[in-house]
Write a structure and sequence with these properties.
Number of strands: 13
Shape: globular
Structural class: alpha+beta
CATH class: Alpha Beta
Strand content: 25-35%
CATH topology: Metallo-beta-lactamase, Chain A
Order of helices and strands: EEEHEHHEHHEEEEEEHEEH
Number of helices: 7
Number of domains: 1
Oligomer: single chain
CATH architecture: 4-Layer Sandwich
Strand order of the largest sheet: 6-7-8-9-12-13
């Protein structure tokens, strides 16, 4: 599996294109905005988009999903249904942050812990990891040992929990119980900023490291 990260919106959210090397079938993860730029990247990489995946309902991750889905005729899958209240309020979120993308939507498929999503010959496992938001999900590709963790975990930090229905202890539990068991060698793409590995974060992250 190949990927390309496109930081979008003034919040520099890591929209990620995932694709199968053989047939170029592609999933678009967290198209938070800048739909034209995302479409241009799909064209330049000669990708065949099949679906849109959402980690959670915050504007910088989901703001461009409805417009992109309509433009390309794609289904939207995720997040878990507890984030419906955020997806319904995407226009208000957009106004709050001064963003132009922010159309409300209901995904074609809600995702639960243990679900699978696929495109081409690629299959991703879904982990429900609440705390940053109640319906946050993580996408994991076992074969390449790659996880897309949204705003659950960052290099050297963790997601904020001061937004509506965020909970600090729930977030910590999600990381310890759902992410760490996947293995220290797993590389992850966060919602913002540089990638890291679970092992590095267990060694050095001041919020969830083993030595805290």
């Amino acid at each position: 599996m190949q990927f390309r990260i496109l930081p979008v919106t003034p919040l520099q959210q890591n929209c990620t294109l995932l694709w199968d090397e053989t047939d170029r079938c592609c999933a678009i993860v967290d198209p938070g905005g800048e739909v034209d730029r995302i479409v241009q990247a799909l064209t330049s990489e000669r990708l065949q988009p099949e679906l849109i995946l959402i980690t959670h309902g915050h504007i910088d991750h989901a703001g461009g999903a409805a417009a992109l889905a309509r433009r390309l005729g794609l289904p939207i899958q995720g997040p878990q249904r507890e984030d419906l209240f955020l997806l319904e309020r995407l226009p208000q979120q957009a106004a709050m942050f001064g963003l132009t993308d922010g159309e409300a939507f209901t995904p074609d498929r809600w995702l639960e812990q243990g679900a699978r999503v696929g495109f081409g010959d690629i299959e991703l496992k879904v982990l429900h990891c609440p705390g940053h938001t109640p319906g946050h999900v993580v996408y994991f590709h076992p074969d390449s040992r790659l996880a897309l963790v949204g705003d659950v975990l960052f290099k050297g930090s963790i997601g904020r929990t001061d937004f509506p229905r965020g909970d600090h202890q729930t977030l910590i539990d999600s990381i310890h119980q759902r992410l760490w068991p996947l293995g220290n060698e797993v590389r992850f793409i966060p919602g913002h900023g540089p990638s890291s590995t679970f092992g590095e974060e267990r060694r050095s992250n001041p919020f969830v490291g083993d030595g805290r």
